[in-house]
Description:
Blueprint: E1 2-7, H1 11-21, E2 27-32, H2 38-45, E3 49-53, E4 55-56, E5 59-60, H3 61-70, E6 79-83, H4 88-97, E7 101-104, H5 109-153, H6 165-182, E8 186-193, H7 196-203, H8 205-222, E9 229-234, E10 237-243, H9 247-264, E11 267-268, E12 271-272, E13 275-282, H10 290-306, E14 312-314
Parallel strand pairs: 1-2, 1-3, 3-6, 6-7, 13-14
Antiparallel strand pairs: 4-5, 8-10, 8-13, 9-10, 11-12
Amino acid sequence: MSMILLVDDQVMVCEAVRRALANQPDLDFHYCTDPLAAIKVAEQVKPTVILQDLVMPGVDGLDLVRQYRKHPSIHNVPVIVLSTKEDPATKSEAFQAGANDYLVKLPDKLELIARVRYHTRAYLDHVQRDEAYRALRESQRELMRVNLELERLTRIDGLTGLGNRRYFDEYLAAEWRRCLRTQHPLSVLMIDVDHFKRYNDAYGHLAGDEVLKQVANVIQGGCTRSTDLAARFGGEEFVVILTDVPQEGARYVAERLVQGVRDLNIAHGTGRVTISVGMATTMPHEGGEPAKLVNAADLALFRAKNEGRDRSVSSEISAVP
């Protein structure tokens, strides 16, 4: 439905326009005789076309047109200027002010209806396009949000909330390349929950899952920098990547993690749940492989278990060939 708003101080003109549009069921009509209230009325009736008189007491009609164009809710509404004369200079000034059309009043009924319908259709098409664009942009934003969430989920271990094995592999490769450029050290900690199979057998898998979550929280809490990564390597094994951290720094973090799990004080038989940690540090170099760094940390973890568990052990080499 179209809504035509006439802003004219002469009631006689308003009545004449109302009669011209009266038999058009698709055209609603409203008029405003107070130019100072024109914008407020336009906000209320939401016109699809404004018919604007040029000469009114106290207000320049073209100034009103300029105000329409600055107002957020009506700046796109078509404006047809009504003038008492066909003057090229006035017509040019009207278009410069933002008018869409120009008619000499009182216009022929058929011409008025045709112009009103044309500008209404153009305006409604514009509104529909804007709404379609807004819906499309919102859909694109939602799709981007969903894709980002899916991407996040592909990198997260569902049980512990840490990075998963895939994310660990990607992150290690990226940090290896970065440290190769910067010539900064790179450290890896391999972590295993001691006697975890026995815990599962004694307390059940649900209790075992809860232990993994609590251990994961300790490990995540030990990664205090934004560049550190904690991930679940598989089963009861975890891994931590420490960037720009030398061997002594990696040893400090490992010992803090071992103590942190002790402090959980989770009963395990006659003792408590503990972890073993193996660590390795290297300065990445051309021809080196990240997998060898992981393997060195894994060998150190094997030593930690052989030496009695509940401890951390450093790799015997500080640089991985």
